[in-house]
Amino acid sequence: MGTLLITGGAGFIGSNLVRYALGHSSDRVVVIDKLTYAGSLLNLQGPLDDPRVTFVRADIGDREAMAHVFAEHRPAAIVNLAAETHVDRSIDGPRAFIDTDKGTIELELAVIDAPLTVANFIALARKGFFRNNAIHRLVPDFVVQAGDPRGDGEGGPGYTIRDEPNELPYLRGTVGMALDWEDTGGSQFFITHSPQPHLDAKYTVIGRVISGMDVVDGIQQNDVIKRIRVWDGEQMIGE
Ligand SMILES: NC(=O)c1ccc[n+]([C@@H]2O[C@H](COP(=O)([O-])OP(=O)(O)OC[C@H]3O[C@@H](n4cnc5c(N)ncnc54)[C@H](O)[C@@H]3O)[C@@H](O)[C@H]2O)c1
User: Fold this and answer.
1) Is the pLDDT score of 87 beyond 70?
2) Ligand 1, closest atom to CA 35?
3) What percent of the chain has pLDDT over 70?
């Protein structure tokens, strides 16, 4: 009995390969995965209960962690499937325009750092979800918050999305997804008036204001977002 090392084993192909290996050999299987937005332990439900499987959450770029895995498990073969996929790099810095009754706020969307959250935001804008949405929360010198169709802070699109914590810092004009607790983002987002480092890596940063910060500063509770438009590099969505 040998050991097969599969990197990216919590991804689409990797998790299927893990299942195949367990079903067709008596080998042990070591899975290394960083669990990025693309990987999930849900993909390994079943295999993780098999005593032949070891899961290691690590980055394949982490030399020390890799040396440790190799020393401990001495794999006979390695299949390297870890990769950053699903990021559409053909879209260069998509912009969103939040048209409010006080003026327009222009955002740069963090498509590389929060791809799923940005895709969700664009999909909602495309559907017209934010049309005539009241800005339901204002905390002076902290945030304005919008995207709640109910207007009481409890509303959302009817589903929730996974968090994508990233390394973008909360500065003045940072746009973040609002949450109740882990993985409960949907449509509510906020814009910071000032740096808020205690929010870093806790709330997915989806972009930053690149013009119209004076509009953000002037917004009062119950001001209205008329619509959100998104420039995807080729066309304006949500007009
Ligand atoms: N799915 C396809 O149709 C297809 C086609 C051709 C080639 N490929 C290639 O096959 C490989 C796997 O594809 P997939 O569809 O399973 O991708 P996937 O995105 O579903 O899985 C990739 C996995 O790698 C993990 N990962 C990413 N960066 C990592 C890192 N630095 N360290 C450790 N883990 C990391 C992710 O968490 C994820 O679980 C990729 O190289 C992809 O480009 C896929």
Assistant:
1) no
2) 37
3) 96
Q: Look at residue 59 and tell me if it is in a domain.
A: yes
Q: Which residue has the higher pLDDT, 84 or 229?
A: 229
Residue in 85, 86, 87 to alter for ligand 1 test, most ligand atoms within 8 A of Cβ: 85
Shared domain for 46 and 129, answered yes or no, is no
Instruction: Please enumerate in sequence order all residues whose Cβ is within 8 A of that of 83, keeping only pairs 6 or more positions apart, or say none.
Output: 8, 11
Are 19 and 104 in the same domain?
no
Is the CB of 115 within 6 Å of ligand 1? no
pLDDT band (50, 70, 90) for residue 39: confident
- Check the CA dihedral 101-237-175-204 and report its sign: positive
For residues 139 and 18, what is the distance between their CA atoms, to the nearest angstrom? 49
Residue whose Cα lies nearest atom 11 of ligand 1: it is: 81
**Of the residues 27, 55, 80, which one is the last residue of a structural domain?**
80
